[in-house]
Amino acid sequence: MASRRAQALIKAARAGDAAARLQLGRLYLSGGEGLAASPPAAFHWLTLAGDSIEAALEIAVRISPEAAAADPAAYARACRRVADGGSAAAQRALGELLLEGYGLPADPEAAREAFRLAAEAGDLAAAARLGELLMAQPERTAEARLWLERAATHGNVAAGRQVADLLWRAGDEAAAPWLRTAAQAGDPEAACRLGELLAGKGGEAGREGTAWLERAARQGHARALWLYGRCYAGNLGGGGRPAGLPRSLKQAARLLERAAAAGIAEAWWDLAQLYGQRGFSGRDLARARHCLETAARMGVPAAQLSLGEQLAARKGELKSMLEAGRWLAHAAAAGEAGAEARLSTIAGQARGWPEEAVQRQEDALAEIAQEHPAPAARLRLAARFDLDARETLFLDPQMADQGWCLLADVGQHFTYKPWRLVRVETAAQREALALLRKAFAEEAAANDFTGVARARKRALESLLRRLALDPGLFIRDWRAPWVERDRALREKPAQETAAKTGMDR
């Protein structure tokens, strides 16, 4: 129950007494006189205290934005007023408001300036916040480091971690003392990073690095488990074994299994190599294959290359070749050495057409596509992927697009050279595949070519002849007899005229 003094203050505050409102607001900040502490109630009465700098100071320094949710604009005005009066804490609070757009328009640049003023006035939290914001701008990392180091050297542990992170990302060995401080404070991430930085070195530094990795691994840090497991294996990823650590493939496997279960993709790749290693008592080829496939699915380029090469060794198996190509294409896109060359042994490349010929094709296809979308889609595919006549007429449109390649499969109709793979390399090729899918997803696919080879060939010739188009415009190995005949008929009058002119002379 509120004391008599508190009741008197409440009565006076409700009557409009500014001094009573200020005192009541302060009373609600910490509680007392029978009143429980209530920052929202304190904010309410301090806001009503009129144009009091003391009330504004209490709001800016002692009340959080969450407690001021009833009137964010009033909270922002109080923070700005006190900040303009030189309060570093209020400047920092104002910076947060400007950053988040709380109670006033968001302005990141003005927020950084507010943090800078607070930091220059000695506010360590503001210095750390300013450094954190500047870290996001690569061109201002040097300035970020200065502010973070200022905060860290005065005891701000979080700023010390950020300095270590900044130097770590830059590959600067000056990160070591900062990491060591954070690691000694019990931070497993810092211990792991320090261990990774030092473990590859010889002598005492290498032993210290291994010790930090062990400490982080004992805390369950996933990356530390992976790196510490590699230390025991000694020959994974081209790395060596730190001094003083015995080689133990079984211990390596135990640690790597834990790292893999924690989601470290590279640990799956290391396990694949470990379980496939000759001389390892725990050798398990089935487990090795499972780990390899998992690493590939998780995006490890080296695993994708290895899996692609293993599948590509099954020559003649279409399913294996398609799967091999998918993994090799992923590895090549990631820049893995050797993936591109291996991929070229599985799928060929389409020969490019001259630009003039490409434009002629497009003009001709535009004329065909509206009335005959399915045949037009086939012809566009033939031109873009350099298909022969049989592939153009008999290719399965539902199976053609394999993502990384075109599958030109005519095995249901011909026994000789039943399928061929062609790399998808250009935007025009991808567009041609997309148009093929669209054409055969609609009812318009009903006008596709049907029947045996002779019937399909006649249908194509009939369509193109009606449009006065040469099939060879789209299919390199096709010269229709009627095209040659028409050409001969066109050339005959010219030849006769030339001969007659010669005789007259």
In short:
By secondary structure, this protein is mainly alpha-helical. The protein has a two-stranded antiparallel ribbon with strand order 1-2. It has 26 helices and two strands.
Explain this structure to me?
Among the domains are: 299-344; 356-480. The chain has 26 helices and two strands. It has helices at 4-14, 18-30, 39-47, 53-62, 72-84, 88-100, 108-120, 124-135, 141-153, 157-169, 175-184, 188-199, 203-218, 222-233, 249-261, 265-275, 285-297, 301-312, 318-333, 339-344, 355-369, 373-385, 389-394, 427-441, 453-466, 481-504; strands at 405-409, 419-423. The protein has a two-stranded antiparallel sheet with strand order 1-2. The longest helix is centred in the C-terminal third of the chain and has 24 residues, at 481-504. Mean pLDDT is 87; it is low at 481-486.
